[in-house]
Amino acid sequence: MEYTGSKYIGEYVDGRMEGKAKYILPTETIYVGEMKDGVFHGEGTLYFPSGSQYEAIWENGLAIKGTYTFADRLHYDEKNWHYCDGYDRRFYTEILNGLKPAGMAQLTNMDPPRKIPKGYYDCGDGFYNPVTRVIKDYRNRFLRNADDDEHEWITRTCRKG
């Protein structure tokens, strides 16, 4: 664990991670569930720093069947996904709470929307600085460097502060 930056709290069998466990990745994503032979196996949930989660049945480290839930408790449904599609462009909070009166636009699913630092873009998982091409999460932690395609997409489509 010291080499990967991960932390394991759980049971061992013959020196291998096996049984009920909590596995914390360096990204602060946390897995809580069953392990077998050092990998996710059985029922388990990934909790992401954004507040979203993925609850699944795992076999030898691979998710076989699962459910993704966004931080706002919206459940992703692969077969009946009607959120923000070509037919219904409302935000989830608008579906739950209704539309605002005419002239009061809702710009994001968050209401009121996040305040974007001047010159930066809100790219959905953090703020993007187009000068340094660095994306940091909303708590100012490094996420990634944007390549040319992502830079172009962000500056073309995302809200700017």
Layout: helices, strands, pairs:
Layout: E1 7-13, E2 16-24, E3 30-36, E4 39-47, E5 53-59, E6 62-69, H1 92-97, E7 121-122, E8 127-129, E9 134-136, E10 142-145, H2 148-157, E11 159-160
Antiparallel strand pairs: 1-2, 2-3, 3-4, 4-5, 5-6, 7-8, 7-11, 8-9, 9-10
Organism: Colobus angolensis palliatus (Peters' Angolan colobus)
InterPro entries: MORN (IPR003409), Morn5 (IPR042814)
Subcellular location: Cell projection, Cilium, Flagellum
Provide tags for this entry.
about 160 residues, 6-stranded antiparallel β-sheet, mainly beta, Histone H3 K4-specific methyltransferase SET7/9 N-terminal domain, 2 helices, 5-stranded antiparallel β-sheet, about 10% helix
Structure description:
The protein has helices at residues 92-97, 148-157; strands spanning 7-13, 16-24, 30-36, 39-47, 53-59, 62-69, 121-122, 127-129, 134-136, 142-145, 159-160. It contains 2 helices and 11 strands, in the order E-E-E-E-E-E-H-E-E-E-E-H-E. Helices cover 10% and strands 38% of the residues. It has 161 residues and is mainly β. The protein has a 6-stranded antiparallel beta sheet with strand order 1-2-3-4-5-6, with no helix packed on it. A 5-stranded antiparallel beta sheet has the order 10-9-8-7-11, with helices on one face. The protein folds into 3 domains: 7-69, Histone H3 K4-specific methyltransferase SET7/9 N-terminal domain (Single Sheet), CATH 2.20.110; 78-113, no CATH class; 116-160, no CATH class. Keywords: Cell projection, Cilium, Flagellum, Repeat. It holds the Pfam family MORN. This is MORN repeat-containing protein 5. InterPro entries: MORN (IPR003409), Morn5 (IPR042814). It is found in: Cell projection, Cilium, Flagellum.
